[in-house]
Amino acid sequence: MPPRTERDLDTSPAPAPAPHDAAWFDEVVRAHGPAVYRYFVRRAPRDDAEDLAADVLAVAWRRRADVPHGAELPWLYRTAGFVLANHRRKGRPTPVGDVPDEIDDADPATLAVADEQVRHVLAALSPRDRRILLLGAWEGLNGDELAEVLGISRGGADAALSRARSRLQEAWAAHAPA
């Protein structure tokens, strides 16, 4: 066993994360505001996306003590899911086929939404499978972030993503043109 050093005996607490103050919030908005906005553009009427994103950021400010340091984006996505569910309960219809008039060829997500077959295959999946796939593919969440958003373990998130991908593959095969 190696000899103990002064560093090994140091019992001082680890430095506390930066406080969730106005500067922290400005950084969260700068770094993650566009991603939250895009989350809503893909799931709600375009006219509502900006207001819904602002609602999520307002919740983040009010509950800033609850936002985990280093996991701000997954926390925002999870909150966005709740905000979107509340928005939908208000009875506003969410048009499934609402796509921009001009397609940006550089944005694969927009191209996928515009593709009729992709829309039919996604519609055939359960809402949970669709949510898991879109968070991974469109929002680019990794396994830990997906687990945080879903409120489950990393292993559970990996399994859910694997099952959702399998069901997507089955639905794609079933909807493939003859």
Helix content: 55-70%
Shape: globular
CATH hierarchy class name of the largest domain: Mainly Alpha
Order of helices and strands: HHHHHHHHH
Helix and strand arrangement:
Layout: H1 6-9, H2 22-41, H3 46-62, H4 72-89, H5 108-114, H6 116-124, H7 127-137, H8 143-150, H9 154-175
Helix pairs in contact: 2-3, 2-4, 3-4, 4-8, 6-9, 7-9, 8-9
Descriptive notes:
The protein is mainly α and about 180 residues long. The chain has two domains: about 70 residues, Rna Polymerase Sigma Factor, Chain: A; about 70 residues, Winged helix-like DNA-binding domain superfamily/Winged helix DNA-binding domain (Arc Repressor Mutant, subunit A, Orthogonal Bundle), CATH 1.10.10.10. The chain is about 65% helix and about 0% strand. Helix 4 crosses helix 8. The longest helix is centred in the C-terminal third of the chain and has 22 residues. It is globular and about 55 Å long. The chain starts with 5 loop residues before the first helix and ends with a helix. The mean pLDDT is about 80. Keywords: DNA-binding, Sigma factor, Transcription, Transcription regulation. This is Sigma-70 family RNA polymerase sigma factor. It holds the Pfam family Sigma70_r4_2.
For the structure shown, list the relevant keywords.
2 domains, Rna Polymerase Sigma Factor, Chain: A, 178 residues, mainly alpha, 9 helices, Arc Repressor Mutant, subunit A
Entry summary:
Pfam families: Sigma70_r2, Sigma70_r4_2. With 178 residues, the protein is an all-alpha fold. It contains nine helices and no strands.
